[in-house]
What does this fold into?
Amino acid sequence: MRKRDIVLKISQETGIKQVVVKDVVQRTFDTILEQLKAGKRIELRNFGIFQVKRRKRRIGRNPKTGEVVPVPERLTVVFKPGLKMKSIK
It folds into this structure.
């Protein structure tokens, strides 16, 4: 499912124009990104938690050549599913 599909579904279910729904969906995503860039945690009840974690530097290995490669420290976004998402089978 793409963002466009989400906009269409919400627009059809609510009767709100697609342009308005698209703006709200995009602003929602933009707000989540801004907060994650600021190092904040996003908790959406029953959906899940987005947060930024720091990955330590480590030694990796190139799978093709077997050469040892240093992997630098970096920040990454992690997602922990909420109760409703965990119950999906």
Remarks:
- The chain has two domains: 1-39, 41-89.
